[in-house]
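USER:
Working in pairs, take the chain set out below, taking as long as you need, and write a paragraph about the fold.
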Amino acid sequence: MALRSEEMILNVGPQHPSTHGVFRLVVTIDGEQIVDVDPVIGYLHRGTEKLAEDLQYTQIIPYTDRLDYVAAMLNNYALVHTVEYALDLEIPDRAEYLRIIVMELQRVASHLLFMGTYLLDLGAMSPFLYAFRERERIVQLFNEICGARLTYNYMRVGGVKWDAPPGWIEQVLEFVTQMKSKIAMFHELITGNEIFLHRVRGIGIISQEDAVNYSLSGINLRSTGLAWDLRKSRPYSIYDKFQWDVVTGENGDCFDRYMLHMKEMEQSLHIVHQAAESIPSGPVLGKVPKLIRVPAGEYYTSIEGARGELGVYVISDGKDKPYRLKLHRPSFVNLQILRKLLIGLSMANLIAVLGAVDIVLGEVDA
């Protein structure tokens, strides 16, 4: 008599540590094999875009902190960059350098958190502790410059809220030097580990065609070999003043996405080092009207966020509040390929694939 299996529906989340937030996966399995997946989002929806319609432009900045809440500095900049583009503002040089420093330090902090939580998802505790130890040093630097540890509200239309305190730039340079040696340690601890390699190599492969068709961006796109990074492809701020490389993968699998996080930390540290060594003196806030009114029209700008293209689309009717604000959120867009990646895999690989896509639910749901 032949054995017969029946399909079973399994809920993963919405309260589950390895779903990286309140995210629910309704998984249909046949034995251990995934037959179908239905991602369910919206548990964290706060209506940020609608709330912005009743807020002045400066008042919106703290709301952006709560999107990708592990990369808040980048969210802050995305909004003020669009407003500055609409107003055609000139930003003081020192403010731009400070922005670059904090944004790239934020990228390193975000990638460290990815590395630590991803390895924890796969059953390794030590990398999680090491990653948070190094991230804490960045958080302390941010606390010194803006008085907050997670949601910073540091960027301003026309510049930044405060100048760096005495000795802060020197601390940044010291951190960069030490962090480079820590990345080498992480490679020794993780990258060559046979158990880790067995869990991630050849798993969750994204083809370059699928990456483009699904509008993926950030590391998910670059892991397929496509060198698309808005800091190079459509330069903004003063990124064109610094020497650095866009790193890409080859196979588009979970291992490539892990490696790109590691390599991008090295590139970000290289940018921070150059900016900190050449930062000019001067004001940190340009000439901005006390009441900001964006000229009537439609405006869109995007930046390279920690997880891909982070865009802000503003429709203005000439008043001090946006008529409409729409956010292009990379975590939300990148999440759409998850079902395609998971069908046919075993349940053991579900968390490995989800973790490598690297989403933050605050940005998915907004």
